[in-house]
Write a structure and sequence with these properties.
The structure holds 2 protein chains of 2 kinds.
Chain A: E1 6-7, E2 10-14, H1 20-34, H2 37-51, E3 57-59, H3 61-67, E4 70-75, H4 85-98, E5 103-108, H5 112-124, E6 127-133, H6 134-139, H7 141-149, E7 153-157, H8 164-178, E8 182-184, H9 195-203, H10 205-218, E9 224-228, H11 233-239, E10 248-256, H12 267-270, E11 272-276, E12 278-283, H13 308-315, E13 320-325, H14 326-340, H15 346-359, E14 367-372, H16 380-384
Parallel strand pairs in A: 4-14, 5-6, 5-8, 6-7, 9-10, 9-14, 10-13
Antiparallel strand pairs in A: 1-2, 2-12, 3-4, 11-12
Helix pairs in contact in A: 2-4, 3-14, 4-5, 4-9, 5-7, 9-11, 10-11, 14-15
Chain B: E1 7-13, H1 19-31, E2 37-40, H2 51-62, H3 67-80, E3 85-89, H4 91-97, H5 99-109, E4 113-116, H6 125-133, E5 137-142, H7 148-157, E6 162-165, H8 179-189, E7 196-199, H9 205-213, E8 218-221, H10 223-230, H11 236-250
Classes of the chains: A alpha/beta, B alpha/beta.
Chain lengths: ~375, ~250
């Protein structure tokens, strides 16, 4: 490999030999293209006119009054397909096209990444297959329909826990058999090198815009930034630009029914380092190293691993990792809908509610930015079961 | 690790379908003339394996199999036979025990070679060191996609034998042997004096013969045996009989 494959001890390339040449090919092409003028302008054009960038940084006045602190929302929920995932799928889709790949595969949990991949497949004219756990297909029917409408094939995964973890296993197996023609479009900052870096770079636009927008609107950087963490792509996307700054960063994991119940997705808060899906990172596992099933009300946070850079940032205390329960997330979901008329994705609602808690320790004039990574339309059905 | 002859190397997952039957299956494989054993450590997320071996992993885990019991089972097999025992394992199971501790336990159990399926040579440094320290052969995969440069690096670290992955893809029985497989065997043989065992997808005598005729030293058969476990879960005697019969049919060489 030409670049560093690890963040401290985390990351790496723990994959069978068959896949190694594909990772080498991917890194080589990515390094060549990321500074290529034509590639960059094509991507920027798509981000602007297809996806809808830049997204607004919105001062949430009513919500701010309610929590007694100045709250800004980075409106990734306004992007085409309804979440930040499109930043990465456009980037990797274009990369695949330049590499001459004729087929895209992807895993999806909540279906947001699957939809974002399916639309890019349609846009760029590349055949697309999406692996999705049977349980998630049940939870996210509308997204399955959206993917199919865009011409993607949705392949149900009925092994293991039948969720995101198993969809990744199946996608990796597919890739092993088809590496010559196929690009595996990973949806988060997870997997073997170079994926955690590629996905971070394509999501970095969130923080890049936020920094300029907050300076323009407030003339200073925020006191804190809050983002939810499943695999961790929206969080890295907004954190990365602020890592050297005097801004406190909070990554919010899914506490599900509570850490003590064992039914949660709080990998960094309650897990330990181990190897899954090609990288060394924090995991939910038993003492033998068998991977445990994660649980969250939100399918997008229901993952027993996390991006290796987050593990590194945790150990270095550069980011505070905290957790929010299902109940609290639902509270955040309702609060934002009622005060601002903005319905957040259940994933993002975890960040929303943590900001409510955080505001209590802040002064009235302090600024908090919440990365509103997705919109809640997809969750109306499952929230309906609870409220 | 094994002699340069037409070696028959069966693969099963330790504890599939449960400890005692698994032990009986492995002993049967030894009795029927296995030249070396490949024993898999059950893992929850075996990304290199097709459905047949995934289900075998699930059955073993569901029956309560874990790393400690797997070592125990291998120890029992070690007492039963002198043929080499190689294990197939995913890296997290080693990492969680502590790399050095794992290789020490492996040696104590009588294991001769360790192949970590998801460990390319780039990540293998500590594992190789621990293997050397405990006099265990670090075994590596070579795939059709492995470049000339990578093969050179792999051969620097590999000991015991080379595990050639016959297909582009995951484990699972297939019907024929492709030209690419034969090319791969010849390519590896021209670069090393280590024995070459070929695995992934071999399920019948004709395939085994083709592979040996192209210069390989051994044939690893996994999914085809495991399918006989899967299809006879309710009748253990029939399971053992069918495995015996299948293995006899594969003994084309003797």
């Amino acid at each position: 490999m030409k670049t560093k494959t690890k963040f401290g001890k985390y990351g790496g390339m723990f994959v069978p030999e068959t896949l190694m040449p594909a990772l080498e090919e991917l890194e080589e092409n990515y390094l060549k293209l990321k500074d290529n003028g034509k590639f960059k302008s094509q991507l920027n054009e798509l981000l602007k006119n297809y996806a809808g960038r830049p997204t607004p940084l919105y001062f949430a006045k009513n919500f701010s009054e309610k929590v007694n602190c100045r709250i800004y929302l980075k409106r990734e929920d306004l992007l085409h397909t309804g979440a930040h995932k499109i930043n990465n799928t456009l980037g990797q889709g274009l990369l695949a096209k330049y590499m001459g790949k004729t087929r895209l595969i992807a895993e999806t949990g909540a279906g947001q990444h699957g939809v974002a991949t399916a639309v890019v497949g349609a846009l760029l004219g590349i055949r697309t297959c999406i692996y999705m756990g049977e349980k998630d297909i049940e939870r996210q029917k509308i997204n399955v329909f959206r993917m199919k409408l865009c011409g993607a094939e949705v392949i149900p995964v009925n092994t293991g826990s039948k969720t995101l973890k198993d969809a990744i296993n199946e996608a990796l197996r597919d890739w092993t058999a088809n590496i010559k023609t196929t690009h595996y479009l990973i949806g988060s900052v997870v997997g073997p090198h170079p994926y955690p870096k590629i996905v971070r770079d394509f999501q970095n636009v969130i923080g890049y815009e936020t920094k300029r927008q907050i300076m323009q609107q407030e003339g200073k950087l925020p006191k804190a930034i809050v983002a939810c963490v499943g695999g961790g792509s929206n969080a890295i996307g907004i954190f990365n630009e602020f890592l050297g700054e005097n801004t406190s960063l909070y990554g919010v994991e899914a506490e599900g029914r509570g850490i003590k119940t064992g039914e949660h997705g709080a990998t960094l808060c309650a897990g330990s380092p181990g190897i899954l899906h090609g990288c060394l990172s924090y995991l939910l596992q038993n003492k033998d190293g068998q991977i445990k099933e994660a649980y969250s009300i939100s399918a997008g946070l229901d993952y027993p691993g996390v991006g290796p850079q987050h593990s590194y940032l945790k150990d270095k205390s550069k980011v505070n990792y905290v957790s929010i329960t299902d109940k609290e997330a639902l509270e955040g979901f309702k609060m934002l809908s009622e005060t601002e008329g903005i319905i957040p994705a259940l994933e993002s609602a975890h960040a929303v509610y943590y900001a409510v808690k955080l505001a209590k320790q802040m002064k009235k004039d302090d600024l908090i930015v919440i990365n509103l990574s997705g919109r809640g339309d997809k969750d109306l059905h499952s929230v309906g079961n609870y409220v | 690790m094994f002699d340069l002859k037409k070696a028959f190397i069966p693969f099963v997952v330790a504890g599939d379908p449960e400890y005692n039957t698994s032990k009986q299956i492995i002993k049967t494989l030894v009795d029927r003339g296995a030249d070396m054993l490949e024993i898999g450590f059950a893992f929850s997320d075996p990304i290199a394996d097709g459905p047949t071996i995934q289900f075998a992993n699930n059955r073993a885990l569901a029956s309560g199999m874990n790393s400690r019991k797997t070592f125990e089972l291998i120890k029992e097999i070690r007492d039963y036979t002198d043929i080499p025992i190689s294990i197939l394992i995913y890296s997290n199971l080693i990492y969680q025990q502590g790399i050095e501790t794992f290789y020490r336990h492996a040696k104590e159990a009588g294991i001769d070679g360790v192949l970590v399926v998801d460990l390319p040579y780039e990540e293998a440094f500590e594992y190789i060191e621990a293997a050397h320290k405990h006099n265990i052969n670090p075994v590596f995969l070579v795939a059709q996609t492995t470049t000339k440069e990578r093969l050179k690096e792999i051969l620097k670290s590999a000991k015991g034998y080379i595990y050639a992955v016959s297909v582009l893809g995951v484990t699972g029985a297939r019907d024929n042997v492709g030209e690419e497989t034969i090319k791969l065997i010849k390519r590896i043989k021209s670069k090393t004096i280590l024995p070459v065992a070929v695995g992934f997808g071999i399920s019948n005598q004709e395939q085994a013969k083709q592979i040996i005729d192209s210069g390989a030293d051994g044939v690893i058969v996994g999914s085809a045996i495991i399918k006989l476990i899967e299809s006879n879960l309710k009748n253990k005697n029939k399971m053992i009989n069918e495995i015996s019969r299948f293995v006899n049919k594969l003994q084309y060489r003797k």
